[in-house]
Amino acid sequence: MKRELGIARCGLACCLCSENVECKGCKQDGFKDLCWCKDADFCETRKCVLRKGLMGCYECEPAGCRIGLYADKIKPRAFAEYARRYGVEELLDCLERNEQAGIVYHREGIMGDYDEFDDLEKLIDFIRTGKRRES
């Protein structure tokens, strides 16, 4: 885990991303507009956060948001909601602990263990505990 890369503006975990080893994270140096994500120029979520002067969606009220990735992706919504509720450092602590326990962020391409959920609260619980709970 590259903890120093932190959490992306949208909520995704730059710190665990294996897509680009040269990546510096999408919010390096705080509010500066530095992003190495290949989709940065097109990312509606990122544009919204920058327009609002926020560090990330976790500083906003994401419940009904459907901008960019939030239109159909549960993982960034769950990560941002976790950070909103418990703080970015707590999210990073959980992700680091989960990685050490064998939970994989990217297994095949950009899909991994956090992508196996269709319920926001179940994914938030998985982030917190590292365990899948049956209904």
TrEMBL record:
Superkingdom assignment: Bacteria
Protein name: DUF3795 domain-containing protein
